[in-house]
């Protein structure tokens, strides 16, 4: 389902299901970041790649006056996925993720014009291109990869969809992926 105009980058609260037909296949990226170091083998990685992911997003301003986004992920059958807690203040915080291992990340609102990567800044709707997007920057503490994401809204198959453009680098190697999410409910 297309995201209604009331769902914006300043108000992402709601449930979103990854559209596997429109999204790029995440499995090559999962292999690239070498999840075996977190004890996640080939079969589990394949299962993650095949699962349908639902994001349960709550966006609010916390007690410190910082916009916070809490995301609980569930996979097909209600299997618990990762938990993301993003503070949009561009300050680093550490997280020990049961899927991705020890990571250090930061997030913020950003203008797409200020994004320096052509892939990350491509395909956005005018509301994202001229307004705000969200940038996420995550470093794997133990495995040497860096993931940059830009979140916003794109048109795909005639629908306005929540989307993430993602670039993961490890040394001079690079992988790119676009994920599209159907809006389910608030």
Describe this structure as you would to a colleague.
The mean pLDDT is 88. The radius of gyration is 16 Å and the shape is globular. Helices cover 11% and strands 48% of the residues. It is mostly beta strands and 186 residues long. A hairpin with a 3-residue loop joins strand 5 (93-97) and strand 6 (101-110). It has a ten-stranded antiparallel sheet. The chain has helices at 27-32, 42-50, 126-130, and strands spanning 14-18, 54-61, 67-75, 79-87, 93-97, 101-110, 133-140, 146-156, 159-170, 173-185.
Q: What's the layout of helices and strands?
A:
Blueprint: E1 14-18, H1 27-32, H2 42-50, E2 54-61, E3 67-75, E4 79-87, E5 93-97, E6 101-110, H3 126-130, E7 133-140, E8 146-156, E9 159-170, E10 173-185
Antiparallel strand pairs: 1-2, 1-10, 2-3, 3-4, 5-6, 6-7, 7-8, 8-9, 9-10
* Alpha carbon gap, first and last residue: 13 Å
Rg, alpha carbons:
16 Å
Q: What general form does the structure show?
A: globular
Q: What is the makeup of the main sheet?
A: 10 strands, antiparallel
SSE series? EHHEEEEEHEEEE
Helix content: 10-25%
> Which segments are poorly predicted (pLDDT under 50) over 5 or more consecutive residues?
none
Q: Give the tally of β-strands.
A: 10
Class based on secondary structure composition and strand pairing: mainly beta
What is the helix tally? 3
Strand content: over 45%
């Amino acid at each position: 389902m297309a995201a209604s105009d009331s769902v914006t980058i300043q108000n992402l609260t709601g449930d979103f299901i990854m559209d596997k037909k429109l999204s790029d296949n995440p499995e090559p990226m999962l292999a690239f970041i070498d999840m075996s170091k977190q004890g996640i083998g080939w079969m589990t990685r394949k299962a993650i790649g095949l699962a349908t992911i639902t994001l349960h997003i709550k966006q609010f301003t916390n007690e410190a006056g910082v916009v916070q986004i809490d995301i609980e992920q569930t996979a097909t059958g209600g299997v618990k996925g990762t938990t993301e807690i993003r503070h949009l203040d561009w300050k680093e915080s550490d997280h020990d993720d049961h899927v991705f291992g020890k990571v250090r990340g930061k997030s913020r609102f950003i203008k797409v014009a200020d994004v320096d990567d052509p892939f990350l800044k491509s395909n956005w709707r005018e509301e994202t291109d001229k307004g705000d997007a969200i940038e996420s920057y995550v470093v794997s503490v133990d495995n040497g990869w860096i993931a940059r994401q830009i979140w916003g809204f794109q048109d795909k198959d005639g629908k306005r969809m929540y989307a993430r453009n993602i670039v993961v680098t490890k040394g001079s190697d690079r992988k790119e992926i676009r994920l599209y999410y159907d809006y389910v409910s608030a």
